[in-house]
Amino acid sequence: QAFFCLLLCVPWGSSCPPSCQCTERAGAKAVLCSSQHLEEIPKDIPRDAVFLKLDANSITRIPSNAFRHLSHLEELDLSRNAIEKIDRAAFKGVAAGLRTIDLSSNRIRSIPKEALLALNAKLRLANNPWHCECALQEVLWEAQLDPDSVQDITCHTAPRQEYVGKPLLQVLDAGVNFCSVRQRTTDVAMFITMFGWFTMVIVYVICYVRHNREDTCKHVEYLKALPSAQGHAE
């Protein structure tokens, strides 16, 4: 055990980010960058990293292709940061090998489902200020959530006040479907738009007919006046 602990503390390679510690865990490369006041994901993470801990920092965003060069990555810990935005291609290039992604205890209100499409990893999404809507519901349908943390995905905001503060899973189990609400809203918006266009067409036709009728009446009056005008001339 003492030898194993010593092995964990031995740095490997010169490409380790300055604020991180690079070690080996049973032959697998681990990059430990916990509690280093990082505001963004380091650019020089070794390509053969298998475990990457970036927890307890001040990272606010996961940009596109942030981990694309880490083809061996299996475990990614981004918990206890200040993450608010996750780009659609945030996990592009590492999706196949990832087993776990910890995004708990951040400031995430929503996450694009495109970022999770190719993921087979278990996700930890607990303790974020989630906005419960169709997009989040679709994420739950698409993603593989860690069963131990799914109950801690609660609605910080929601279309209806009665859902606020409740676990999202509980709200969905009660029969709520945020996506059907959005569909109804979209249908109503389309109906209003179509009604508006239809009304404009009717108004245009009425104005056109009235304008032509007025022109026709003026022309008829002009024609009626022609013989009398010629008679006076004779």
TrEMBL record:
It holds the Pfam family LRRNT. Residues 1-22 form the signal peptide. One of its GO terms (cellular component) is plasma membrane. The lineage of its organism: Eukaryota, Metazoa, Chordata, Craniata, Vertebrata. This is Leucine-rich repeat-containing protein 3. It is a single-pass membrane protein. The gene is Lrrc3. PANTHER family: ANTIGEN BSP, PUTATIVE-RELATED, LEUCINE-RICH REPEAT-CONTAINING PROTEIN 3. Its main location: membrane. Residues 15-51 form the LRRNT domain. The chain crosses the membrane at residues 188-209.
